[in-house]
Amino acid sequence: MRYVILRDDDTNALTPIDCLERLYRPLLDKGVPVNLATIPEVATNTTRLDGSPEGYLGWKNGETAQTIPIGANQKLVRYLLDNDAYHVLQHGCYHHWFEFDRDDSVEIRRRLDRGTQQLVEAGFPKPRTFVAPYDKLSASSLREVARRFRVLSGGWYELARLPFTWWPGYLLKKLRDMPHWRIGSTLLLSHPGCVLSCQRNYSTMKQSISELVNRQQLTVLVTHWWEYFRDGKPDEPFIAVLQEAVAELTKMPDVKLITFDDLVTGEISPRVPLN
To answer: What's the pTM value of the predicted model, to 2 decimals?
Structure first.
């Protein structure tokens, strides 16, 4: 059996329910799990390198607060809780630029704990999976995340950025050519980049996904809900690609779409090298 986790990044207090509903209703109706990497207290001034606002801030609507906790949008919280197929993960704290690519352990701990607190106070279960903004973490951040979470969903891992004590586990992973590995009780997952992205060729996207899933036992597919609604308008061809690609996966007898929590509970045990 092969497993697929659909990870959608950047849900936050400013996210319109209509966008998530338009994108994921066909999946929700079939019980397909959608793992939402949710920003606990979104910063409203995060910019890209070119100075433009991050894409998920396109629905800021004149908001002047520097940060907005997810619990401030009770309609969104209720919508997510009422639809069992949504599974909320912790996506940083504020989603500042390279938020966890820092060495200040005190500040790292504060942000991790505040993010968890905001999600729990909003009514979500305590998150067991962490996603760093931009998939960037320092060695100090990696250590603190591993102490708090059972799963870290990242892009890739570089030896020079890892805690020294993690090097043997990382080298074993590389020797076995495995995308995922484990440190203690924390599973560290890799993903092949944002395959579901408006920056990619729509006509070849579904084939690319199929090839990825066929190559490994566990595949994390990453996307961003706001890319499907650039300039406030739905990109219908892109939406169709996502929905059709997932529909095709659900029809494959040897493929199962799962949650990150399925890995924590032991219902799914991917082959990973132990440290």
So the answer is: 0.95
